Structures are given as C-alpha cells and as structure tokens.
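Practice problem 4.
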C-alpha cells in the first residue's frame, strides 16, 4: 500500500466522506451487520473510488448520475455473499435482488431499482458492465479500482497515493481478497446453481477445489494496494 503523503485534512476528509443521506444510512444499516469487515470495507472503498472516477470523467452527481444510487449499488454489490444470504442463485444475482428490494422498500422507483439491479448483477462482467450506462460503468470501475489493477488498470491514475492512503486509513483492506473469495466459494458450494462453470463464482470454486488457491488470490501479489 502506498505510504501517506502530505495533503490537507479537509482534502482527505472529503475523499472519505459518505453521502449521509437517509437512503445511504439505511443501506449501511442493512449491510454492515451481515458482511465481514473486509468485504464491507471493500464495498465502501468501491464507492469512494467510483466517485473519484466520476469526477475525473467530468460527471456530476445529480446531473449525470444519482449519488444515492451509486452508493447503494457499491455498498450492496457483494451483499449476495452476506451471512444471511439464501444461497439459491449466483451471488451477483442475489445481491442485485436484495438491493432492488431494499430500494423499493425505501420508496424509490421501479426503474431506479432496476438500474441498481443491473449494475450489481453485471459488476463482475468485464466488457459488458461498461456498456450499460453510467451507473453500471461507475460501479464496475469502482470495484475494479479497489482491486488495484487485478481487474484492469484503465483508470489506475484516477486515485493518487495520498487519496488511497486516506481511504485505506479509514477502511483498511484486512485480507479483503481472501475473505471475499472465501465467501464466494462458500456461497457457490452451497448449491450447484450458484456457481455455473466459466462464471466468476464457478471458476473461483473450481480453482479452490482443484488447487487450493485461486488465480485471483495469486494475482494480489502484484496488486497496487496489496491485500
């Protein structure tokens, strides 16, 4: 992880600021108790990095995208592997269903719930999510940025070392990839329908069963952020 560099307190606090809206607070209340801390921190970092990317691309909250929806989609994107997941479908779909149901329960529209559903369901689909609208692209690339190059480095320069240090100080990694892979593999092993062959969960499950370690875990030896 990069070493901290000089940056004003106001600048670093802005980088780690969360929306603080009623919807954002409700999303945190929903997911914090049921996710491991490494996966929860990853989800929040994905939002913070997605917001930095939006600014770098000249996209404005409220005009080009809904910040509450971006926050909800990022924070709930791995909710399919939460401890209380029903484990009946792929983790991406279970997370998408959970987020859509949450938004409808909060009074958001069907179209908004569907937009978030799509962003979460496609967040692991490289080359597809980026073509399905601004929200879908921001969620996928925010997640990718938190993987530190393992999921692609097209936007690597968006996050400075100082910004990364500020984010990681508040939301540390805590062996994120190991914790996330553990959760995805457990979810996939619970039901064959959860881990179809050649899907992300299917390949992670197969690699763990055959080799004891996944390529994703191996790749983190050269990740920008470490693990």
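Answer key:
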């Amino acid at each position: 992880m990069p070493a901290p560099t000089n940056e004003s307190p106001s600048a670093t606090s802005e980088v780690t600021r969360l929306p603080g809206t009623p919807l954002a607070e409700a999303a945190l209340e929903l997911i914090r108790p049921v996710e491991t801390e490494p996966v929860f921190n990853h989800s929040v970092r994905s939002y913070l990095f997605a917001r930095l990317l939006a600014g770098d691309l000249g996209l404005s909250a409220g005009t080009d995208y809904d910040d509450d929806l971006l926050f909800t989609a990022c924070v709930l994107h791995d909710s399919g592997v939460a401890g209380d997941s029903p484990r009946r479908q792929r983790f991406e779909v279970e997370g998408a269903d959970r987020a859509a149901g949450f938004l409808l329960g909060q009074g958001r529209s069907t179209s908004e719930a569907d937009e978030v559903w799509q962003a979460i369901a496609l967040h692991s689909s490289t080359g597809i999510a980026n073509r399905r609208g601004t929200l879908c692209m921001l969620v996928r690339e925010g997640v990718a940025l938190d993987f530190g190059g393992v999921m692609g480095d097209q936007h690597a320069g968006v996050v400075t070392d100082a910004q990364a240090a500020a984010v990681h100080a508040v939301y540390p990694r805590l062996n994120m990839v190991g914790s996330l892979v553990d959760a995805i593999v457990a979810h996939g092993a619970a039901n064959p329908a959860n881990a179809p062959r050649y899907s992300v969960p299917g390949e992670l499950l197969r690699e763990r069963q055959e080799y004891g370690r996944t390529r994703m875990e191996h790749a983190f030896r050269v990740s920008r952020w470490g693990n």
